[in-house]
Design brief:
Layout: E1 12-15, H1 18-26, E2 30-34, H2 45-50, H3 53-70, E3 74-76, H4 82-95, E4 100-101, H5 111-115, H6 126-144, E5 151-157, H7 160-170, E6 177-182, H8 185-197, E7 200-205, H9 214-223, E8 229-233, E9 235-236, E10 241-242, H10 245-254, E11 258-262, H11 274-277, E12 281-285, E13 296-302, H12 303-307, H13 320-329, H14 340-356, H15 358-378, E14 395-399, H16 405-414, E15 417-418, E16 420-421, E17 429-433, H17 440-464
Parallel strand pairs: 1-2, 2-3, 4-15, 6-7, 6-8, 8-11, 11-12
Antiparallel strand pairs: 5-13, 9-10, 12-13, 14-17, 16-17
Helix pairs in contact: 6-14, 7-8, 9-10, 14-15, 15-17
C-alpha cells in the first residue's frame, strides 16, 4: 500500500525459512529461498567453515530440496544472486504483459479458459473420460446441428495440421485419386502431406488472391471420372479468402465424390452443416474460433467412412480409425497420452461459446470486428487486399505499402497488439485476425495506435527528406 503496488506479482518475498516461502505463496508473491546463512540451513559461520566440502554440499542439497517442495519460485545460494532473480522476474513480467493477439490462432483467450487448465487429471479416470466424450459430442452437434449418430468427432493430440494430415492419410483408399483445390499456403501444405503419404492426386491451383472457381472445378470433375474425393481449405489463412464451401461440396457430390474440408479457421464462426452440405470429413482445432488453446485438434467424419477406414492409415499416431475406436468404445479414452489440461480448457471454451449465444452471436461479433477494422484503417488509407465478396471475417490482409514490418510489429507489440506478417511473395502485406476474445473497441484502439505511428512516420520522413 505504501509503495502503490496493487499487484502482488510485482513483489518478491525473500526468506530463509519454509514459513517465509509459504507466506509469499499465500500472498501470491514471487518467492525466493536463501540457503547460506539461513535458519533452514541452521549453521553458523564457524560451523560452515568446519565442515568438509562434501558435508556442506549435502546440507545445502537438503535445504534446496525443502525449498523446492515448499513451492519456492527461486532458490539462491546467497543474497549476491538476488539481482539476477529480480532481473529474471522483470523479464517474465514484461513477457506476461497483457496483449491482444490479433492472429488467427493461437489467439486471445478468456481468463476462464486459461484457468480451467489449473486442475490435473488422470487420463484413465472416468470423470476425465466423461469430459472428453462430452467435448466430442458437442463438437459433433456444432457441425451437424443435432445429436445425429451419422457423424462422429475424433480428437487428436497436436495442432490442426495433424488433423488435416490424418484426414488425408486415413479416409482415402490406397488407390483413390484426390482432387486438391489450392489457393494458398495451407492448401499447398495438404499437397505435401499427400506426397508424403504416397497418395495419387490431381491439382487445381488458383491465385492466392482469388477464390476457388466452381466452373473450373466442374470442368475438371467432368473430364476426370477417376477422381474419388475433393479436398480444399474453407477459409485460407494465407490471405483470409473464404472459399464457397456449400457450392464446392454440392458440386463434388453431384459427381459422386467424397468431400473433405480443412475448416481450421472457419469452424465455429461460419455455418457448416455437414449433413446438409453432405461433407464427409472436416478437420479443425481448439485454438481458432472455438477460442480454446493450441495442442488439440479434431476430425469430424461420417461414421460409415471412419468405420470403413480400418487399416488405411500409414501412420501409427495419426490413425483415425484406431483413435475413433478407443474414444468411442472406451468412453472417451485417448490411445496415447491425452493433453489433459488443454482438453479441460476446450471444455470451458465450448461452454463459453454456448454462453455467448453459439454461432449466431460469435459470428456477429467477428463480423463487427472485421467491419470496424476495415472502416477505421481505410481512414488511414490502408485497404484490404482481398475483394470484399470473397473476404472472410476471420482474418484480413492489408497492403503494407512503405511501412517496414519489423518496426511496425514491434511498435504494435509495445502497445499491446500482436499481428501476423503477410504470406504473399508478390505484395508486401500484414494480416490481422478478428477472432478470439477481442471486440470492436479493440479494433478502434488498434487503429488509433496505427494512426499515431503513421503520423510519426510521416514526420520522420519529412525531416529526413522534406521533398517527401
Amino acid at each position: 500500500m505504501q509503495f502503490g503496488i496493487i499487484d502482488p506479482r510485482e513483489a518478491l518475498k525473500v526468506g530463509d525459512t519454509l514459513a517465509d516461502i509459504e507466506e509469499g505463496i499465500n500472498a501470491n508473491c514471487w518467492t525466493a529461498g536463501v540457503i547460506m546463512g539461513s535458519s533452514e540451513l541452521g549453521l553458523c559461520r564457524d560451523e560452515v567453515e568446519a565442515m568438509t566440502e562434501s558435508e556442506l554440499f549435502e546440507r545445502k542439497k537438503q535445504v534446496h530440496a525443502a525449498y523446492y517442495q515448499a513451492g519456492a519460485d527461486y532458490i539462491i545460494e546467497d543474497m549476491n544472486q538476488l539481482p539476477g532473480v529480480i532481473a529474471d522476474i522483470n523479464q517474465r513480467l514484461a513477457m506476461a504483459t497483457t496483449r491482444k493477439l490479433l492472429t488467427p490462432g493461437p489467439l486471445t483467450t478468456r481468463y476462464s479458459v486459461k484457468h480451467a487448465m489449473l486442475t490435473d487429471h488422470c487420463t484413465w479416470d472416468d470423470e476425465y473420460k466423461a469430459i472428453t466424450a462430452s467435448i466430442a459430442n458437442d463438437l459433433t452437434k456444432i457441425a451437424v446441428g443435432d445429436e445425429s449418430s451419422e457423424y462422429v468427432t475424433i480428437l487428436l493430440q497436436g495442432s490442426g495440421s495433424y488433423a488435416v494430415e490424418a484426414m488425408i492419410n486415413c479416409l482415402n483408399d490406397k488407390d483413390d485419386r484426390i482432387l486438391f483445390l489450392v489457393n494458398g499456403e495451407y492448401g499447398r501444405r495438404m499437397v505435401r502431406m499427400a506426397d508424403n503419404a504416397g497418395c495419387s492426386y490431381e491439382l487445381l491451383n488458383f491465385e492466392d488472391t482469388e477464390a476457388i472457381d466452381c466452373k473450373i472445378v466442374d470442368n475438371t470433375l467432368r473430364n476426370n471420372p477417376g477422381i474419388n474425393s475433393v479436398i480444399f481449405v474453407h477459409c485460407e489463412t494465407t490471405t483470409g479468402i473464404i472459399n464457397p464451401l456449400k457450392d464446392i461440396a454440392r458440386l463434388a457430390k453431384s459427381y459422386g465424390k467424397k468431400v473433405f474440408v480443412d475448416a481450421m479457421s472457419s469452424f465455429g464462426a461460419y455455418e457448416i452443416d455437414m449433413k446438409a452440405f453432405r461433407i464427409d470429413g472436416l478437420a479443425s482445432s481448439a485454438n481458432k474460433c472455438l477460442e480454446g488453446l493450441p495442442g488439440l485438434s479434431f476430425v469430424i467424419v461420417d461414421r460409415q467412412i471412419i468405420e470403413q477406414s480400418k487399416g488405411k492409415a500409414t501412420s501409427l499416431c495419426l490413425d483415425l480409425y484406431e483413435q475413433y475406436r478407443s474414444l468411442y468404445e472406451e468412453g472417451g479414452k485417448f490411445r496415447f497420452t491425452s493433453p489433459t489440461n488443454i482438453l479441460l480448457a476446450l471444455r470451458q471454451a465450448i461452454d463459453e461459446y454456448m454462453k455467448e449465444g453459439g454461432l449466431p452471436a460469435r459470428r456477429a461479433r467477428y463480423i463487427k470486428n472485421h467491419t470496424t477494422l476495415v472502416e477505421e484503417l481505410r481512414k488511414l488509407d490502408i485497404s484490404p487486399l482481398i475483394a470484399a465478396d470473397i473476404q472472410s471475417y476471420i482474418i484480413t490482409t492489408f497492403e503494407l505499402k512503405d511501412i517496414e514490418f519489423t518496426s511496425f510489429y514491434e511498435m504494435l507489440k509495445n502497445n499491446g497488439f500482436i499481428i501476423y506478417p503477410g504470406k504473399l511473395t508478390t505484395v508486401p502485406t500484414f494480416r490481422i485476425g478478428n477472432i478470439g476474445d477481442v471486440y470492436p473497441s479493440d479494433m478502434k484502439r488498434l487503429a488509433e495506435v496505427i494512426g499515431d505511428y503513421l503520423s510519426s512516420f510521416a514526420i520522420r520522413c519529412y525531416y529526413s527528406d522534406p521533398s517527401v
